[in-house]
């Protein structure tokens, strides 16, 4: 019984570790994508700054090129941010959560069995205590109840069995 409880607790620990690893993987992926989006955003900001600088110049060609590159960089950063925000754990998370739920149910069932076993053990100890107390206070009554009555019943059954055989 205790072995089942320990085994179930180990399964629960492993399931929790697996769930933690999955969430860490999702977090690392999100942070990586966010960092990449930030880098692209910095490049876009640099290009926007370059475009603003060139906008002050009388020539229109370099400004439109730099501005279009900045908008393209911002668009890429927006797509990467969108993907990073929607990044979710895969189906392995469902499996890990199911294993965790089963382990918790099993731990609860083992705890119920352990509680019942301890309860019945307590009742047996109380019964033994009462028997010992009665034996100390009334040894003949206990001897009659525990020894004489079962012996008499056995003798009567034996006599009935012999009577039926004849």
Question: Can you offer a commentary on this structure?
Answer:
- This protein is an all-alpha fold and 166 residues long.
- It has a single domain (2-165), classed as Helix Hairpins (Orthogonal Bundle), CATH 1.10.287.
- It has four helices and no strands.
- The longest helix is centred in the N-terminal third of the chain and has 54 residues, at 2-55.
- It is rod-shaped and about 130 Å long.
Which whole number gives the mean pLDDT? 79
Radius of gyration, taken over Cα atoms and rounded to an integer in Å? 40 Å
What does the largest sheet look like? none
How many structural domains in the coordinates?
1
Helix amount: over 70%
Structural class: mainly alpha
- Stretches where pLDDT falls below 50 for ≥5 residues? none
Number of helices: 4
> CATH topology, what is it called?
Helix Hairpins
Shape: rod-shaped
Summarize the helices and strands and which ones pair or pack.
Blueprint: H1 2-55, H2 61-85, H3 91-137, H4 139-165
Spell out the key features of this protein:
166 residues; mainly alpha
Structure, briefly:
The protein has 166 residues and is an all-alpha fold. It has helices at residues 2-55, 61-85, 91-137, 139-165.
